[in-house]
Amino acid sequence: MPLPAAVKIREVGPRDGFQNEPETIATEDKVRLVEMLARTGLQRLEVTSFVRADVVPQLADGREVLERSVIPDDVSVSVLVPNMRGLEAALEVRDKIDEVNVFLSASETHNRRNVNRSVEESLTELERVLARATDSGLRCEGVISTSFGCPYEGYVPFERVFEIAKRLSVAGAVEVGFGDTTGMANPVQVGEFFRRAEEEIVGAELTAHFHNTRGQALANVLAALEAGCDSYESSFGELGGCPVPAGATGNIATEDLVSMLHEMKVETGIDLGKLLSAAGAAREVLGRPLGSHTLVAGPVEWHPERDPFKENPPR
Asked: Which of 75, 108, 177, 179 has its CA 20 to 30 A from that of 233?
């Protein structure tokens, strides 16, 4: 199958990345980084989540970040909401957001350890949340963690993931994201997953969310691309991970994803130079090296008189 001519990318670093940092990033730094990201050409940006401050203190200032950030009108702003209480808090700043994301795990064990509920209990609650958010005019995404494997249970059957996705879609999720939460996916598995998902889940946008825990994220993106997936979530600087279990670090770096896609002549609409500047600013704020390869090596530079695609065009 030919690769998609263009893909959509949602940047999740200000939420998924910042919440996994051991220290709390200053509000003014969050605002500055959000505004830098919003001016890279990204069309979708997850800014924060509305969770209890005692659970995720790193995002306790989420409302203030939303209210202070100046984001262009053509950038769709999303927030994560874990339950109805989180949605009601988000609706208090309805004029600042365009989308909400809800989440649960495909694995019973991971779901209980993450949100202290069974999968069925989470689904029942999220169906109510999606209905309320849809009535409020918000675009809705449902994210399914451990879609490609669970560190506690191992293999997660495709059918289980697809059934959850269908229920989220029926409840109002116009987009379903599949999370490789602890970096267990491999390219053969990913290709088969998305080929089957396209047949099983009709009417919803399907999005891939890969982690680079074991260094396979870009390979998994290529497999998803070849299966027709044209929507991805990623985090600048390779920030983020999963709070349970320990060691499940590293979303795919947005700049690594964009760099690879551009080299393959797949359009993203994103200015890689500006994106690298944002990742570099995050590195300065955190005061440590980040996992992003492109941030270290820089973008690929071809001599204009030796364009490799003129001699060997992509198939």
From this structure: 108
- Asked if 141 and 217 count as a contact pair (C-beta separation under 8 A), the reply is no
Exactly one of 140, 150, 229, 242 is catalytic; name it.
242
Q: What is the pLDDT of residue 250?
A: 79
Give me 227's structure tokens.
């299966």
Q: Which two tokens stand for residue 218?
A: 């870009």
Q: What is the pLDDT of residue 193?
A: 98
Residue of 63, 103, 88 lying closest to 233 (CA atoms): 103
Instruction: Please report which confidence band the pLDDT of residue 146 belongs to, taking 50, 70 and 90 as the band edges.
Output: very high
Active site residue 229: no
Mean pLDDT of the chain: 94
User: Three-state SS across the chain?
Assistant: CCCCCECEEEECHHHHHHHHCCCCCCHHHHHHHHHHHCCCCCCEEEEEECCCCCCCHHHCCHHHHHHHCCCCCCCEEEEECCCHHHHHHHHCCHHHCCEEEEEEECCHHHHHHHHCCCHHHHHHHHHHHHHHHHHCCCEEEEEEECCCCECCCECCCHHHHHHHHHHHHHHCCCEEEEEECCCCCCHHHHHHHHHHHHHHCCCCEEEEEEECCCCCHHHHHHHHHHCCCCEEEEEHHHCCECCCCCCCECECEHHHHHHHHHHCCCECCCCHHHHHHHHHHHHHHHCCCCCCHHHHHCCCCCCHHHCHHHHCCCC
Tens of pLDDT along 202-242?
999 999 999 999 999 999 999 999 999 999 999 999 998 76
Residues 206/176, Cβ–Cβ less than 8 Å: yes
How confident is the model over 180-196, as a mean pLDDT? 96
